[in-house]
Amino acid sequence: MRHHHLTALTLLAGAALSGTYALANSPTASATSDTTRLYPEELQRRRIIRETKVISVGGNVEAEAGRDSIETLLERFYVNQFRNSQDPHAPYFTFMSRDANMAMGIGGLIRVRGWMDWNGMIDNASFCTYLIQMPKTPETMKSLGASVAGTTLFFNIMGRHSRIGDYQAYIEGGFNGYANSGFKLKKAWVQIEDWTVGYSHSTFSDPAAQPDLLDGAGANGKIDKTNVLLRYMHTWKDRWTVAGSVEFPSSAPQEQEGQTKKVKDYTPDIAALGQIQWDRGLSHVRVAAVLRNMAYRDLISERNRHVIGWGVQLSSVVKATRWLTFYGITSVGQGVGSYTGDLSAGKYDLISNLEKPGRLYAPTTLTGTAGVKFNYLPDLSTTVALATMRTFKEGLIDGDTYKYGQYLAANLIYNITPRLQIGVEYLAGKRMNYSGEHGNVNRAEAVFSASF
Fold this sequence. Notes:
mainly beta; 16-stranded antiparallel β-barrel; two-stranded antiparallel sheet; 4 helices; about 50% strand; globular
């Protein structure tokens, strides 16, 4: 298959803007045709797209549509405001119609992880500080493990239609690892122009602002939840983005025997965001919010009650130079525990006040994540991240209730090829309960991943 030289570079990967697809001859793309001005992420994705093997359906797509049109369509795989560094790359083999108006691919990501814990342990492949073993005993001071958790398979179809415009459908599932084997649906959504419907990242999240870490759980202060939703998201002038969504909830209230009980959610969560972006979309500042109405059964008074929850998040990723990137996320809210990194492992949307039997309240939570990434070379980088997650109680609560968690990560990552990556990472975490009991752990891990 003969390759043609690109006449101009299209907007790439996470840089691209949801709902607006830049063509290869756009002014912005032309301005970045010089590879010395591209960021390492753009260089990597450009190499992946150029190396993709295209299988023509119904004719010779390269002869009829040209390589430029092929690569323009393939790059749309990365047109997603909710991608992060751990997502798989575009499939290595892609079926494409002869006019380059439709493409279909099946791909995946194999991830192998080995780790050692000391001075405490987390019995999980992911470093979630909520799961730190407490109290410490001689049996919980050290551990050694390995897993293929994070391995994924996906199916993707995208194209253009004369009546409905640009569209994309995506399904992704993942394996939990040999110690907890099982296949779990992670994403399943359809996007038509500015509309998305299906199982996708909540609008009240910003995966792109999460530091580039190897740890599967990520920073404990991140906002990260997947919901079934209907979202409208629009970008104009390649700079401004707004979005709003109706999301089907899955609240997680505490249950006390004989006092409170979970009931089915019957009110959707409402989420929205506003964003300004630059550096071809690789830098942005986002403000997001969510409003919730959560229900539970008061068994003392024999009635259903509901509590209003809310959350606000400010997040950003900034390319200070071609080689230096800053990340930042902070959030505050009430009743949004299931949206946060640490508390999603428990039931903290609504918790008990022991002074008021039969009643639950939405605890106030505060999170913060800061990170910096330095690229020594286009394929060699280091990321350092700090994060915290804190809850604030009302009245008397159980002593083993999570009070705060702290998280530190530092890594070295090398891309052997655009699709093969190895890395090592040091992690440290601490969990503190309201009783004063606390636990901490140190972890060293090595990760190999291959995207196909």
